[in-house]
Design a protein that fits this description.
This protein is an alpha+beta fold and about 675 residues long. The protein contains eleven helices and 39 strands. Bound molecules: alpha-L-arabinofuranose.
Length: about 675
């Protein structure tokens, strides 16, 4: 179930506006296009073998080194309950103003929210725990079950911390990692004295040779009577690169394996917020985590902002990605907007400050602040995006808002590349961010859309969100096939499309019911508290991002079979539009790139049919191609086949030797398959 249906409907409108007639389909296919019948299943339109032609002496473009990157935001418990290492859910008790959700009383403790005992102005309430019925035989306290469990692993050190103050209570407190029923204690530690004033307490919890499990809870309890208040109760497992306040290791590793060139952050809708007051206000996300108030995310749950601006930047540093910084531009999801002019100026200044925080040296105001926050070295920043999906702004203010940001940023940082989120007239953006969420058929039908897009040499394209939305919670093989067809298009046109990022990246799959851990279907990577897996779409993307050259070679084709697709009728402003005519769509997709240093040609071929296709491959302009090369193949028996927590590697690419290659060869491509052929050409 999607949380934001209105936006999805409008996206469908947006995505169709660039549709173009397929330029590369062969004449027989174009003829078939004219004579399209109402065939539902894929149908061959020619009996001759399809021919793919690669022109090794015709370099069409350079492959953009930033073509494949990541886009994320707080959705589907991507950070809290996902990448961000914190294991305690609702650690600051602000997720619900009426009651301490996700917390339970242990023993006979009475627990309640208390706005009269704030830790500070950011964490302006606390959890009051009355232990007046505690005894030696019946300890009282609080328990938290984490984000659908707390992962316990053997011989592991966890760092627990909390703020507390007592009244008629001076300790001790026992801090423990236990099974959910309290029967097994995996690790525990004692805090001997609790002060009358707010103070931070820290302990380490070290497990022994215990089995791996997730149905566990974190408990703070006492056998003594009195009243104790808590704030920011935190538990961290080991993190990637051992960063304090850092990220979950397995998720960082699965991202690293994609070799992403950039990270677009912090959103998406998460940048905008439902209202201006709920936008991603970066100044509230830096510094000590106890000074971060947190905010309501547009995806229906609270964010503590533990994953703040510096954490995003350090995430980039850890995975050698460049940041693509999206700055709030005066528009929020419920159609609130700020008028260009003096009203907008504070937001423009916020963006300038933010850029200074990222890039300024320690003698600048915000560079000094970053140094105080623990990172004296400035980050390299090349791209700044002004807003998100501003085509939703019905007030028509984006042109003026973009111009105001553009002028101020370019005046101070002339070399920054500025990204517009929809078309503007008053300035020429360096890039425009386009978003495409589509079915498999639509992805395939649009798989040549950039071939004919005019190149004006001024504004290039960032496909900042795209996905073939087939399969839930994560895409299946049909999704991967649509994605691969689309990526052939991106790669072939990467002189124009210089950056792209699939979205959304993450989903916690623990509770797929409404109101559970997923707000958006078809997400690249799934996980629960313990393990993660990549969808077939994840592996398709990894195949593309880790196997390409630096030059795009010219290609052509003949006799590619087609299938007939009947596009669904769309709704516009609530009104159903006439159904578009049926379309012939290719069943094979391909592109070729070459490594200019060693001559290797990377030929990508996607067969979306339920039968193998034998294809003739002709390479002109190369004196020879060695008979032996490598094939990386991902295939499935059914388009519905998928990966899951239970079967994480059901569909994965297999690398195998490829024989019988040359400048002219035929090869069979399996049903429902994506192949990268590495050809050693001279
Ligand atoms: O990726 C999910 C959402 O889709 C993003 O938050 C938004 O930018 C788009 O509408």
């Amino acid at each position: 179930m999607d949380f934001w249906p209105l936006k999805i409907q409008c996206q469908a409108m947006h995505t169709s506006r660039f549709s173009r007639i397929n330029r590369l389909v062969s004449s027989s296919v174009l003829l078939a296009l004219v004579c399209a019948t109402a065939t539902l299943a894929p149908a061959e339109t020619t009996n001759s073998m399809p021919v793919l032609k690669i022109k090794a002496d015709e370099v069409k473009a350079k492959v953009s080194p930033t073509l494949y990157g990541l886009m994320t935001e707080e959705i589907n418990y991507s950070y809290e309950g996902g990448l961000y290492g914190e294991l305690i859910r609702n650690r600051t008790f602000k997720a619900n103003r009426a009651k301490p959700v996700f917390w339970n009383a242990v023993g006979d403790a009475a627990i309640s929210l208390d706005t009269n005992q704030p830790l500070n102005s950011a964490l302006n309430l606390s959890l009051k725990v009355d232990t007046s019925k505690a005894s030696k035989d019946s300890p009282a306290g609080i328990a938290n079950g984490g984000y659908w469990g707390i992962p316990v692993r053997p011989n592991t050190t966890y760092r627990a911390s909390f703020y507390a103050r007592g009244k008629g209570f001076s300790g001790p407190l026992t801090v423990a990692l236990e099974s959910a029923d309290g029967q097994k204690v995996f690790a525990s530690a004692t805090v001997r004295r609790i002060s009358k004033k707010w103070q931070k307490y820290e302990v380490t919890l070290i497990t022994g040779n215990v089995p791996v499990s997730k149905d566990n809870r974190f408990v703070i309890s006492t056998t003594k009577r009195g009243t104790v208040w808590f704030q920011q109760v935190s538990l961290f497992p080991p993190t990637f690169n051992n960063r304090p306040n850092g990220n979950r290791i397995d998720l960082m590793q699965i991202l690293g394996a994609m070799h992403p060139a950039f990270l677009r952050f912090p959103g998406g809708n998460y940048l905008e917020g439902n209202t201006i007051a709920e936008r991603f206000e970066w100044k509230d996300t830096i510094g000590d985590i106890s000074q971060r108030p947190g905010h309501e995310s547009p995806w229906g749950y609270w964010s503590t902002d533990g994953m703040g601006l510096l954490e995003f930047l350090e995430w980039c540093e850890d995975l050698h990605m460049q940041p693509v910084l999206a700055v709030y531009a005066g528009y929020s999801l419920r159609h609130e907007h700020v008028n260009p002019g003096p009203d907008l100026q504070p937001y423009v200044q916020d963006a300038l400050d933010e850029i200074e925080y990222v890039t300024g040296d320690i003698h600048t105001k915000w560079g000094a602040r970053r140094a105080r926050d623990g990172h004296p070295a400035p980050f390299v920043l090349n791209y700044v995006e002004i807003g998100n999906e501003d085509w939703f702004d019905r007030s028509g203010s984006y042109d003026g808002r973009f111009a105001q940001f553009y002028d101020a940023i370019k005046a101070k940082y002339p070399s920054l590349q500025l990204i517009a989120t929809t078309r503007v007239r008053s300035r020429v953006p360096d890039l425009i961010d386009e978003h495409y969420y589509r079915s498999e058929e639509e992805m395939e039908a649009q798989s040549h859309m950039y071939d004919t897009r005019p190149r004006d040499g001024k504004t290039r394209v960032f496909v900042g969100e795209w996905a073939t939305r087939v399969g839930s919670p994560t895409p299946n093989m049909a999704g991967a096939l649509g994605d691969a067809a689309w990526m052939c298009c991106l790669e072939r046109n990467s002189d124009l499309v210089v950056m792209s990022s699939y979205a959304p990246l993450f989903v916690n799959v623990s509770d797929l019911n409404r109101g559970g851990s997923m707000q958006w279907r078809s997400d690249l990577i799934g996980y629960d508290a313990l393990t993660c897996y990549g969808s077939p779409s994840y592996y398709a993307q990894q195949m593309f991002s880790t196997h390409h050259g630096d030059e795009v070679l010219a290609t052509d084709s003949q006799g590619i079979p087609t299938y007939t697709w009947h596009p669904p009728a769309r709704r516009r402003n609530g009104v159903e539009q006439p159904r578009p005519p049926a379309q012939e769509v290719p069943t094979l997709f391909f592109d070729a790139t070459r490594d200019s240093v060693n001559g290797t040609i990377y030929l990508k071929i996607v067969n979306r049919l339920n039968t193998p296709q034998t294809v003739k491959i002709e390479i002109s302009g190369a004196s020879a191609v060695e008979p032996e090369g490598t094939a990386i193949v991902m295939k499935a028996k059914s388009p519905d086949d998928t990966n899951s927590l239970q079967e994480p590697t059901k569909i994965v690419p297999i690398t195998e030797p490829a024989n019988g290659l040359g400048t002219n060869f035929t090869r069979e491509f399996p049903a429902y398959s994506i192949t990268v052929l590495e050809l050693k050409a001279k």
